[in-house]
Q: What sequence folds into this?
């Protein structure tokens, strides 16, 4: 993308309403704009981050055998009356009445709808297990929206649901999603720590939260640092094998990790002192096993292998896709701006043309830009070098390729790594081979 | 995808509520399920079609220089009060009140919101032109939703908006989108005819509708068949060149095409008799040039080159993404089911294992399936051949690769082309090279 023609409105001033770094930086870097309280428009650079995160989620969901589908944002209140949650859910649920005076709601989660679809479709234990997910906009009418996309009202979320024939298979589904989540977060370049959690309004017996460490997090957390160092991508745990999944779950459970509500001083004291980490954390995902809670209430039964009916066991699995954009920034920024992990960065590199209109600089920039095929942002604005440096740091591209007249004469460009701050004079070829 | 493990619930019976072919076939082929009046869940196979259509739209929008962004589904009523449309829009607008008694609405279109974002951001004529678009869910509270996704309430739509410094540039943007749309529809495998149209509630001076011919269409249309035969992909009209765009627009205008409301008998009589086509049509897109209608009302001004302020000229550009799924089926089906154009088909091919459990059939099927890397559907259900043939025809895969014990012994498979119905005995290699 050429910055001179792009809709990426960076701001020099810090917006007064933004209290935390990610909110400030998302506004200043031109990623989002608020259009109503807790409701945001995603501008082109912001959408690229959201898409990158969603793509990683999709790839890992597919690898774990989950099928993508898409549920509507609005649904009938009747299903939620069946489960009893229409009345139980607080004023966070946005209730809507249509022109025929029928009650609708903007779904904050979809246990009822997916159970309804499953009971229409799945008639036999032979059609189980099923693992379905979507990435869709949801709404929670927060009383006091704040922190930008971290606690907005309209938010983008992956929600998945498993249906299994028995407890053993359901727990395997739960563990499969846990493994998938650890791989997903690691690929995004953030370290999320899995922690045993309360089940809250979804209910159920077993739940884990996935927490990214950041000073502005909403909860205090305590964990063994080994959990940050496990390599979930290289580990040999198979998604298919129940024993593998049990071993993986056991490994996770063997290291201490808890939020404040679940903190156990005795177990914490048993963690080697060098491994103890505590700090604030942001929840970016949560998974639940809740057995037959919804299938029972909504009368979802299938034929079992012995002719008797069985009630499928369920779990649900959430990742806060739009929230992750904020959480990643909270975990990865400095005074100058965002430091994007490469896997989610809106652009792999910025090409900074320090002398727009100079034939040599223009030619070198265009040559480099063409090589990236859309993955780089070309700063071709007629602006001073200082402004370009500041904007590139603010936007947080992993690499900056800086093209000035002196370098062009010498056949070199300057290559800056945003995370380390190192700058080197290198040939164009060498810059490209490093970055591409 | 393996059909035995998939959430693709095909139906043998025709659902009573479905009045038209696309609605019947989308339910029977397991693409969607209705979850409330005019509100649908997209099951895995349906979502693949929706995604394929959206991908083609994105590719052609990018080629035409449009930038993707994403606006929220809900917005404040205040912006629509500024334009005067909050009161002018009928009961089709879904009006919502949040917990703080603030008026929200579920956007049916986004001229106000995009104008608000543009006026916050664009301050000088030098930042124009800008072309922005999104693909997002919208809501229109139809009094009588029907015809499945063709006239649903929650629908998926691409809406784009252009901002230009003057009339000439604005008309060039309009023409660029017109060319982009013709290419997009042609790539999808449907023939959409561009027709001069009324501007309706969006307003403005110039508008074209894009109409797919189908017996169940909502309007009667009349056009010169040359418009069906122009090759918009091979034509040399550049997106960049204003003269090229004017020539393209002139070419389109030189052939007669009108809906009933705009029909002109005298001009129709002048069309060579062999070229006259009339029939029912389904609108799948519409574009508008409306000048300063919104920028003026919402006080969007930028600095001009001479120091005076100018009011940007605008246009808006819609494609009904979810509606297209229905429209394509209306235009391309037979008694047995859907006939997907290859570019939008959920699966390029179905592999039909006629003897599941037979070592030879299983091995040949798995080998072929692996070659497709997810682009084929493997019918590995333990069912009779007749049911598999019927489901494959119903689902409308462009190709069927039929694997039975006799063929396996002879080293061949049967290859069926869904559109032509031809069946041939060919080697596995030859089947793969034809289909992949």
A:
């Amino acid at each position: 993308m050429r910055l001179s023609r792009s809709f990426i409105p960076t701001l020099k001033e810090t917006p007064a309403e933004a209290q935390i770094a990610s909110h400030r930086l998302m506004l200043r870097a031109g990623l989002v704009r608020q259009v109503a309280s807790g409701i945001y428009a995603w501008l082109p650079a912001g959408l690229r981050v959201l898409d990158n995160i969603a793509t990683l989620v999709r790839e890992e969901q597919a690898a774990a055998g989950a099928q993508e589908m898409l549920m509507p944002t609005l649904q009938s209140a009747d299903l939620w009356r069946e489960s009893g949650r229409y009345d139980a859910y607080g004023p966070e649920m946005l209730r809507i009445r249509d022109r025929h005076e029928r009650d609708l709601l903007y779904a904050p989660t979809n246990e009822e709808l997916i159970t309804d679809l499953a009971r229409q479709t799945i008639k036999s234990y032979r059609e189980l297990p099923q693992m379905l997910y979507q990435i869709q906009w949801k709404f929670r009418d927060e009383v006091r929206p704040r922190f930008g996309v971290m606690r907005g009202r309209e938010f983008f979320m992956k929600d998945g649901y498993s249906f299994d024939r028995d407890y053993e298979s359901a727990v395997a589904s739960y563990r499969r999603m846990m493994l998938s989540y650890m791989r997903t977060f690691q690929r995004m370049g953030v370290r999320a720590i899995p922690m045993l959690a309360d089940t809250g309004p979804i209910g159920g017996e077993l739940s884990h939260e996935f927490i990214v460490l950041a000073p502005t997090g909403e909860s205090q957390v305590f964990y063994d640092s080994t959990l940050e160092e496990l390599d979930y991508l290289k580990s040999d745990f198979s998604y298919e094998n129940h024993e593998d999944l049990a071993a993986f779950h056991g490994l996770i459970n063997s290291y201490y990790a808890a939020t404040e509500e679940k903190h156990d001083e005795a177990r914490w004291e048993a963690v080697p002192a060098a491994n103890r980490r505590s700090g604030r954390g942001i929840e970016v995902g949560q998974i639940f096993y809740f057995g037959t809670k919804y299938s029972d209430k909504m009368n979802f039964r299938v034929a079992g292998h012995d002719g008797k009916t069985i009630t499928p066991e369920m779990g649900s699995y959430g990742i806060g896709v739009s929230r992750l954009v904020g959480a990643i920034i909270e975990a990865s920024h400095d005074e100058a701006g965002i430091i994007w992990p490469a896997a989610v960065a809106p652009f792999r590199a910025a090409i900074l043309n320090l002398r727009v209109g100079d034939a040599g600089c223009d030619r070198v920039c265009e040559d480099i830009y063409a090589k990236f095929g859309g993955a780089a942002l070309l700063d071709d604005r007629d602006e001073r070098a200082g402004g370009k440096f500041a904007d590139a740091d603010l936007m947080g591209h992993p690499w900056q390729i800086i093209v000035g007249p002196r370098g062009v004469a010498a056949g070199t460009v300057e290559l800056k790594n945003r995370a380390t701050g190192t700058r080197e004079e290198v040939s164009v070829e060498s810059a490209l081979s490093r970055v591409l």
Remarks:
- The mean pLDDT of chain B is 95.
- The domain at 349-435 of chain B is CATH 3.40.50.800 (Rossmann fold).
- The first strand of chain B starts at residue 32 and ends at 36.
- Chain B has two domains: 3-338, 349-435.
